[in-house]
Design a protein that fits this description.
heterodimer; A: about 80 residues; mainly alpha; 3 helices; globular; B: about 500 residues; about 0% strand
């Protein structure tokens, strides 16, 4: 899953070291447009709809945070 | 009560005095009473509307919290939130948009329904948005406020009531209900912020508004009650002047109002979120909207843009669009549709007029264009290493400033048609030879005074931005005195002068 997420992130916006970056939103490396693109891509790739209450900056700051959020969505919504 | 009026100054002095002296044990309760007194000055009927909002949202918040979060209760929790949203948005819709809707139905179907001519309660858009944000947050799992008076203060806190910032309960609660000891630093910092706000409003914005009225024939935002002339008398080069002066005016009027709001809160020891981050230094349109009216932008982002983007309909539409239009365009289409819906709503929030709707759509369109051409520009920027060149960054700032100026033209002309005609005249009838500042009431003393005032603001902004440590008390007192004198000498006020409401008050 990590590799898939990094690939999606690179498609959304290139030139960021997603493997090590931990402040993607806080440091402005991705913006709201990138986040909704990411949501659409994740939904398409994993067939998983992310409810709006999960769309918080802290869930998009790193690949690890994204993975944790997706696991939580799967657990609570499927 | 206008922030830039003697009545408000007296009201504020009495409130602050009681806050730190006789009623220091009851500070937030005093603020609640003061907020209702302040609001009652706008009309008793308005107090009824804000009370209905306060009560319904408070009750809905408690009700949602009482329903367990388990999966089987999701629909019940959502139902309570939706009912609360419907009641409050319906009140806003009727009071703000009834005339506009009936006018359009009449003209579209050739009917003759009578216009209700409701008067929009002061700040209804702001307090509705703030409280609706709260109820959505509670539905998403945040703690509801248990005390009705405390919640009422969150909904009505007078400094931010009239033009924002649109606060989140979780941010404001942390500072609003605490006891605050008098602190000279906070007080003088707050006072200097209030004076900067008054300086922007009274020395710059209020002097420019009549000039823009003359230039544009009285647009949707700065109409003075007289009939607007649907066809600008001043065309071509004067249109450039209009949009340029309006950029300065709206900046000084709105940021001035927010400076006063944040300054008042600071004198009370309360910290409010900043609403601006030097927006005219933005190098792109999306960046501009991250730096202008920040709390409104984040409200629309968190409560509209994200939920729409992750909704079931968009989830299905995204799959459909990819199948039909292919991966590249199909994945962007839902996002661009959401962007246009979002900016349509943002335009509508600003006012019941096609001008505002067009203004919103123009912003959405510009952002989409920017998104599309960014990859091309990125290649160009990389190839020529443009970002290390100050001249190129200055060009990007200049370009963004003028794109936003042209979009804002919808605010100042009386109709969409008049705006397009004015814009077209720049290309068809520029008329540089007939350009004259004196013709629109700007004479040399005004120009020198306004230029000096704008230069002063730029210097204050630059110093504040670079300053690493707090100014000394002496420096703050000298600063306050200087700005105070500047307002007394150059400000637009006094007998025979019609003080202009802050532009954002009418939203």
């Amino acid at each position: 899953m990590t590799e898939k997420l990094i690939k999606i992130l690179n498609d959304v916006r290139t030139g960021v070291d997603y493997a090590s970056e931990e402040r993607l939103v806080d440091d402005g490396l991705i913006d709201s447009f990138d986040i909704v693109t990411l949501i659409a891509e994740i939904s398409n790739e994993f067939d998983l709809r992310i409810p709006p209450e999960y769309i918080l900056p802290e869930h998009f700051n790193s690949v690890a945070a994204l993975e944790a959020m997706l696991a939580k969505v799967r657990e609570e919504w499927s | 009560m206008n922030f830039a009026s003697i009545e408000f100054a007296i009201f504020l002095c009495v409130t602050v005095f009681l806050y730190y002296t006789f009623l220091r044990r009851y500070q937030w309760q005093l603020l609640l009473v003061a907020s209702f007194v302040f609001y009652a000055f706008s009309g008793w009927v308005n107090v009824v509307f804000i009370s209905v909002t306060t009560l319904t949202v408070y009750a809905a918040g408690l009700l949602i919290q009482r329903i367990p979060k388990a999966a089987e209760n999701r629909a019940r929790r959502k139902r309570v939130m939706v009912i609360c949203l419907l009641i409050n948005f319906a009140m806003l819709a009727v009071m703000k948009y009834a005339n506009f809707a009936i006018l359009n139905v009449n003209s579209l179907l050739g009917l003759d329904f009578t216009l209700p001519n409701f008067i929009l309660p002061m700040a209804m858009s702001f307090y509705t948005f703030q409280t609706m944000g709260y109820i959505i947050d509670v539905h998403r799992g945040k703690e509801a406020e248990r005390s009705l008076p405390r919640f009422a203060l969150f909904a009505t806190f007078f400094p931010q009531l009239v033009q924002g910032p649109i606060s989140r309960h979780s941010d404001l609660a942390a500072t609003l209900y605490n006891k605050h000891k008098y602190c000279a630093d906070n007080f003088t910092n707050g006072l200097s912020r209030i004076l900067i706000g008054l300086f922007k409003k009274m020395v710059i914005a209020d002097r420019l508004i009549p000039v823009i009225r003359e230039l544009t024939g009285g647009g949707v935002i700065i109409a003075d009650g007289t009939a607007a002339i649907d066809g600008a008398l001043y065309t071509g080069s004067f249109v450039l002047l209009s949009v340029f002066l309006y950029a300065i005016t709206i900046f000084c009027d709105f940021t001035g109002g927010i400076d006063i709001t944040i300054g008042i809160a600071k004198t009370l020891g309360i910290t409010l979120k900043e609403n601006f981050d030097r927006p005219f230094y933005s190098r792109g349109i999306a960046e501009y909207w991250r730096r202008w009216h920040i709390t409104m932008g984040s409200w629309f982002r968190d409560y509209c843009f994200y939920p729409m983007s992750s909704s079931k309909i968009m989830f299905k539409f995204g799959k459909f669009a990819r199948r039909v239009f292919g991966d590249r365009f199909g994945k962007r289409l839902p996002i661009y549709i959401n962007t246009m819906i979002l900016w349509f709503l943002t335009g509508l929030w600003h006012g019941a007029s096609w001008n505002f709707i067009m203004w919103g759509l123009a912003n959405g369109f510009a952002i989409i264009i920017e998104q599309e051409i960014t990859p091309l520009f990125s290649k160009f920027n990389k190839r020529f290493d443009t970002q290390s060149k100050a001249a190129f960054r200055a060009w990007q700032i200049f370009r963004t400033f003028w794109i936003m100026n042209f979009i804002r033209a919808f605010d100042i002309y009386p109709s969409v048609g008049a705006t397009f005609r004015a814009f077209g005249s720049i290309f068809t009838n520029f008329g540089a030879g007939r350009f004259s500042l004196a013709a629109v009431g700007l004479f040399m003393p005004d120009i020198i005074m306004l230029s000096a005032a704008v230069a002063t603001l730029i210097v204050i902004g630059a110093v504040a931005n670079r300053r690493k440590k707090e100014a000394t008390s002496f420096a703050r007192v000298v600063f306050c005195a200087s700005i105070g004198f500047a307002i007394l000498i150059f400000g637009a006020y006094g007998f025979g002068y019609d003080v202009n409401q802050f532009i954002y008050n009418q939203f």
